[in-house]
Amino acid sequence: MDPLITNRLRGLPLAEADFDELVELHQDPRIVSPGMTASETREWLDWRLAHWRDHGFGVWMFRDPAGEFVGRCGIHRWSLDGKPEVELGYVVRSKLWSQGYATEMGSAVADYGFTRLGLQTLVGFTRPSNLGSRRVLEKLGFVFERAFAVDGKGSVLYRLANSSPRP
To answer: What is the pLDDT of residue 32?
Structure first.
């Protein structure tokens, strides 16, 4: 699999070797509250690696030119109200927030989904109060669709069509 290259980042498909960086990322309470344990991160990694094997796409780990881990971004199959969807998700290390990395990663992954996989739409969701994540989705061209619940928690759903203008 070829890497995803942006102006500032290089993304490689998620791998077993990414476990330690994922544990650190997932234990940051600014990112995951409460933080995930190493065991929970192991389950997350196993699930995402299986998604790559089963579907041929998933999460990429993005690094800067010096090799420093910046964040993860990817797409995965998901069911919403019994309807199949493909969701875009992204996480940037908290010390690197507000530098445009989430938008940069998200743009590369969305383009991959549309051009390489031929997807017609992508969805993204976040908590209503997560204004930073909502702003990233909007910068990527996603349009608010509706409020809904995930695991009993309020969320907002955004959608991006392949034909929509993108930055």
So the answer is: 80
Concatenated DSSP letters for 82-150? Answer: TEEEEEEEEEE-GGGTTSSHHHHHHHHHHHIIIIIS--SEEEEEE-TT-HHHHHHHHHTT-EEEEEEEE
> Which amino acid would we find at residue 72?
R
Each residue's pLDDT tens digit, 75-127: 999 998 899 999 999 999 999 999 999 999 999 999 999 999 999 999 999 99
**Domains contained in the chain, CATH given:** 4-161 (3.40.630.30)
